[in-house]
Design goal:
CATH topology of the largest domain in chain B: Rossmann fold
CATH class of the largest domain in chain B: Alpha Beta
Largest sheet of chain B: 5 strands, parallel
Shape of chain B: globular
CATH architecture of the largest domain in chain B: 3-Layer(aba) Sandwich
Strand content of chain A: 35-45%
Number of domains of chain A: 2
Distance between the termini of chain A: 56 Å
Radius of gyration of chain A: 23 Å
Helix content of chain A: 10-25%
Distance between the termini of chain B: 44 Å
CATH topology of the largest domain in chain A: Thrombin, subunit H
Strand order of the largest sheet of chain A: 1-2-3-6-5-4
Strand order of the largest sheet of chain B: 2-1-3-4-5
Shape of chain A: elongated
Largest interface: A-B, 47 and 29 residues
Order of helices and strands of chain A: HEEEEEEEEEEEEEEHEEHEHEEHEEE
Mean pLDDT of chain A: 91
CATH architecture of the largest domain in chain A: Beta Barrel
Helix content of chain B: 40-55%
Number of domains of chain B: 2
Oligomer: heterodimer
Strand content of chain B: 5-15%
Order of helices and strands of chain B: EHEEEEHHHHHE
Chain lengths: 300, 177
């Protein structure tokens, strides 16, 4: 019989207890070839998953906490925050998840589904906890949380807990297989919108842009040294309708200088849809202004 | 060796030029995507709704018969084209996904000018300095000047390296809005 007053026994016992308590918080989402990823039981009947790892299909089989298999439908996905949600007709109960605060150095426990109704656990610490950040897809993530932890691909999408049992968010992979967390606050913000619309409404210009230096000869006229070059234009998109063509260099949108992507991403929130904007750009060696009506981005 | 009809799909003109060159140097006939290709080499993902024989580079689309990493070399691309045309499935061991990452901003001092981008596209097509000077209607001296500046901004020592680095940067630092 191990000594229950010994600190390591206590730690181990606590981790076991936390893992057991998390059993009802995960489901396995079945993929082809006997593989699966993990889903986080968010609310009764609502499962949150990692968008980047969920194949583009409408329906999936889930394996619930007791090993029961049920069907769930994908009702929304947002690549910009890496959140997808699935809903099951048969209601699966979800535990009440309390939100936790990520602090560097704190112990983190990540839970995955084993595919047969059980769970797997990963232990690590919070490696880094920073402020909000923008993803490469333009979404706003409330905090930057990086874990010092290994994670199997089948465990991606499960909850990450602190030692008080607070949920830091959903585990996922960042660049170079770094394990990061999509914060609970982001999931709380995005899920209701996804349940309502199936996607996150965002403004859309219909262009691919790359930052370029403004040619020396034009710097004075342009009033800035960098801009965003139009690499391609979506056919019949808002930019195409405004007459914008590949090769144009966008200098500003409604007076906001367009040299940082983040600023541009912020300009295109849900409230921008339908707004008329003045786009100042360089074309053929001259600075001109065109008017463009921001449309709504179609679901990917 | 059999000569196949191959289409190259990429939204990045630099990558399209480089891949077109790889495919034609492997002895294939490069055709338009509407022009009954036997195999489509698709950079990134396969074109939406495409159900024909596709070799996808740098994609996680498990439905594509051919999946190669983005930096696959010329002989791997050729081997994959031929294998897929023969009805085989091609996978690369340990191909890693990009992961969910942050928006990247290019540092101001490393930004390329529109002219440098034109020179890069020409480099990707394998053009000589003379041919580039002719195409852009500039002096040979100016071409050399642009290439030196490209090398410096991209941290490249050779033309091939410059094309590869610029294309990698474009992949990471292009935003679709």
């Amino acid at each position: 019989m191990p000594d229950q007053t010994e600190p390591l026994s206590q730690l181990s016992g606590a981790l076991v207890a936390h893992t057991e308590a998390a059993k009802n918080a995960v489901v396995a989402i079945r993929l082809p070839h006997e593989r699966h990823i993990t889903g986080l039981m968010w609310r009764s009947g609502v499962v949150v998953a990692s968008e980047q790892s969920l194949p583009r299909k409408d329906e999936f089989e889930l394996v619930g906490p007791n090993g029961s298999v049920l069907t769930a439908e994908v009702v929304g996905r947002d690549p910009s925050t890496n959140i997808a949600i699935l809903k099951s007709g048969e209601s699966i109960s979800a535990p009440a998840l309390a939100s936790g605060e990520a602090r560097p150095g704190a112990i983190a426990l990540a839970i995955g589904a084993d595919g047969a109704g059980g769970v797997s656990a990963r232990l690590g610490i919070v490696n880094f906890a920073g402020p909000e950040w923008h993803s490469s897809r333009g979404g706003l993530v409330d905090r930057r949380i990086v874990l010092d932890m290994r994670l199997a691909h089948r465990e991606e999408g499960g909850p990450v807990f602190d030692v008080a049992g607070g949920c830091l968010g959903m585990s996922t992979f960042g660049p170079r297989d770094q394990v990061i967390v999509i914060p609970t606050a982001t999931i709380e913000r995005v899920v209701p919108q996804l349940l309502k619309d199936g996607h996150i409404p965002r403004g859309w210009l219909g262009v691919a842009l790359q930052a370029v230096a403004v040619p020396d000869a034009l710097r004075e006229t342009a009033g800035q040294s960098s801009g965003l070059m139009v690499m391609s234009v979506v056919e019949n998109g808002p930019a195409a309708q405004a007459g914008i063509v590949a090769g144009d260099i966008v200098l500003s949108v409604d007076g906001t200088p367009a040299h940082r992507f983040r600023k541009m991403a912020r300009l295109l929130g849900a409230d921008s849809i339908g707004r008329k904007t003045d786009i100042r750009l360089i074309r053929g060696g001259a600075v001109i202004t065109v008017q463009l009506t921001i449309a709504e981005r179609q679901a990917a | 060796m059999e000569r196949l009809r191959v289409a190259v799909h990429s939204t990045d003109p630099l990558r399209r030029a480089a891949l077109t060159r790889v495919v034609s140097e492997a002895g294939h006939l490069v055709v338009e995507i509407e022009d009954a290709p036997e195999v489509i080499v698709a950079d990134g993902g396969k074109p939406p709704g495409e159900s024909r024989m596709v070799v996808a580079l740098g994609s996680a689309d498990e439905e594509a018969p051919g999946l190669l990493p983005r930096d696959a070399n010329a002989s791997q691309i050729d081997a994959a084209i031929r294998a897929v045309a023969a009805g085989l499935v091609v996978r690369f061991p340990g191909v890693r996904k990009a992961g969910f990452g942050a928006m990247r901003e290019t540092e101001a001092h490393a930004l390329l000018t529109p002219r440098e981008l034109e020179v890069l596209t020409a480099l990707a097509e394998g053009m000589t300095n003379k041919a580039i000077a002719r195409r852009l209607d500039i002096s040979l001296h100016t071409v050399k000047f642009h290439i030196e500046s490209l090398f410096r901004k991209l941290g490249a020592r050779t033309r091939t390296e410059a094309v590869a680095k610029a294309s990698e940067r474009r992949r990471r630092e292009t935003i679709v809005l």
